[in-house]
């Protein structure tokens, strides 16, 4: 149960921060540029993300969608957990999907963090100009 809560919290915090950024200009998702994931279906999703631009709100919604899927995949396969490795399941192909969703969610949250840092830098620069 602990892993589901951690996934939910991680995803929701990223979603909340992205919404708070409030940027309305679509921007590329830089953190997926060289991203490789083990599942082919989700790699196709990553490849599409490499060529798209998203506003902060769209990025928030996307991280929430991917995070919910990640949490669902983990929850629906908890009966396959390997006792010695509680983050792994016995179904190798499903594990690749879970790992891919984890990697993608983390990449999207890194992009949100980059945008947040950039917004702070712009505010400081603007404040310095006005002083």
Write a short abstract of this structure.
The protein has about 130 residues and is mostly helical.
**What is the ordering of alpha helices and beta strands?**
HEHEHEEH
Structural class, by secondary structure, is mainly alpha
* Gyration radius, rounded: 17 Å
Rough shape?
elongated
Number of domains: 1
Compute the number of strand runs: 4
Task: Give unreliable regions as ranges.
Answer: none
Helix content: 55-70%
Individual helix count: 4
Could you describe the largest sheet, including whether it forms a barrel? 2 strands, antiparallel
Q: Beta fraction of the residues?
A: 5-15%
Spatial order of strands in the largest sheet:
1-2
Chain-averaged pLDDT:
91
First-to-last CA distance: 51 Å
Describe the structure.
By secondary structure, the chain is mainly alpha-helical. It has one domain. It is built from four helices and four strands. Strands 1-2 form a two-stranded antiparallel ribbon. A two-stranded antiparallel sheet has the order 3-4. Helix 1 packs antiparallel against helix 3 and helix 1 packs parallel to helix 4. The longest helix is centred in the last third of the chain and has 39 residues. The N and C termini lie far apart (51 Å). The model has no long low-confidence stretch (mean pLDDT 91).
Task: Walk me through the topology.
Blueprint: H1 2-21, E1 27-28, H2 40-49, E2 53-54, H3 56-75, E3 81-82, E4 85-89, H4 92-130
Helix pairs in contact: 1-3, 1-4, 2-4, 3-4
């Amino acid at each position: 149960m602990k892993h589901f809560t951690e996934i939910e919290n991680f995803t929701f915090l990223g979603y909340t921060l992205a919404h708070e950024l409030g940027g309305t200009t679509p921007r590329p998702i830089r953190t997926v540029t060289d991203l490789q994931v083990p599942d082919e279906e989700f790699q196709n999703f990553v490849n599409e993300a490499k060529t798209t631009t998203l506003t902060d709100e769209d990025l928030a919604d996307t991280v929430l969608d991917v995070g919910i899927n990640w949490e669902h995949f983990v929850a629906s396969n908890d009966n396959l957990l390997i006792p010695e490795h509680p983050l792994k399941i016995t179904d190798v192909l499903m594990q690749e999907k879970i790992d891919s969703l984890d990697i993608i969610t983390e990449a999207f949250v890194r992009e949100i963090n980059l945008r947040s840092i950039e917004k702070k830098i712009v505010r400081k620069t603007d404040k310095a100009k006005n002083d």
